[in-house]
Specification:
By secondary structure, the protein is mainly α. The chain is 80% helix and 0% strand. The longest helix has 37 residues, at 100-136.
């Protein structure tokens, strides 16, 4: 096994050289996580907004459930998705097990409650300010949802960021439904776990460096967009 210094040196070399295997793993990770985040946002944001403006019996129970689902155990989600998409499962005929598609489905199930619960809180506070104005304009429920989502779009970037962070760091669910198959379903987190167990620290560290860089880059981009929007609002 290499020393830590040698492992870091080789990891940096792998990153700078654009190793094909490394690039393939990174691109698949981004494709799976970004797709899952977009799908989760398309479901979770309208759902969060709808719950934010609605008042009905059992709402508090639903809020408790939504908040609880934010902590869904990834391995449990992976197991449930595996059961449904295995050959003996009800969706086995689709043949999606051990493909990137089923990995996207598992990640979407994991992060949709996060997006819905966080957006509900943001939009409920905003709706408290706009409720009278919406009533005076006689806006319908879906018109109110659209108005809230548009007005809070920059704040909701942080919600999307939270979902993406959970998706890109996920390992339990994707390794169960994806199988960590080389050149097919191997993503950064599963590759890090595998290479560490094999003692290949340079590749594991290279993937870890890229994963941290992506996380920092996405955070910086979101922050830049929000700051730009705030500056324009005050001009």
């Amino acid at each position: 096994m290499q020393s830590v210094g040698e492992a870091f040196s080789l990891a940096i070399s792998l990153v700078l050289s654009g190793d094909p295997d490394l690039l393939e793993i990174v691109l698949l990770s981004l494709r799976v996580s970004l797709t899952a985040t977009i799908v989760a946002a398309a479901i979770g944001l309208p759902l969060g907004a709808l719950i934010a403006i609605s008042r009905f019996r059992g709402r508090n129970v639903l809020l408790i459930l939504m908040n609880a689902l934010m902590g869904l155990p990834p391995v449990v989600v992976g197991l449930l998705v595996y059961i449904h998409f295995s050959r003996a499962g009800p969706l086995g005929f689709l043949g999606l097990l051990y493909t990137p598609t089923v990995m996207i489905i598992a990640q979407t199930i994991l992060i949709t409650p996060i997006v819905a619960a966080l957006s509900r809180q943001v939009l409920e506070d905003l709706h408290a300010e706009y409720a009278e104005q919406f009533r005076s304009l006689c806006l319908g429920r879906w018109q109110s949802v659209q108005a809230l989502l548009w007005d809070a779009r920059y704040s909701l970037l942080t919600v999307g960021l939270a979902g993406f962070g959970r998706a890109v760091a996920e390992v339990g669910a994707v390794i169960i439904v994806g199988g960590n198959i080389d050149h097919l379903t191997r993503v950064m987190t599963t590759a890090i776990a595998l290479e560490t167990s094999k003692g290949d620290l340079p590749l594991a560290l290279a993937l870890g460096i890229i994963l941290m860089t992506i996380a920092l880059g996405v955070n910086a981009a979101v922050q830049a967009v929000r700051l730009t929007a705030l500056r324009q609002a005050y001009v």
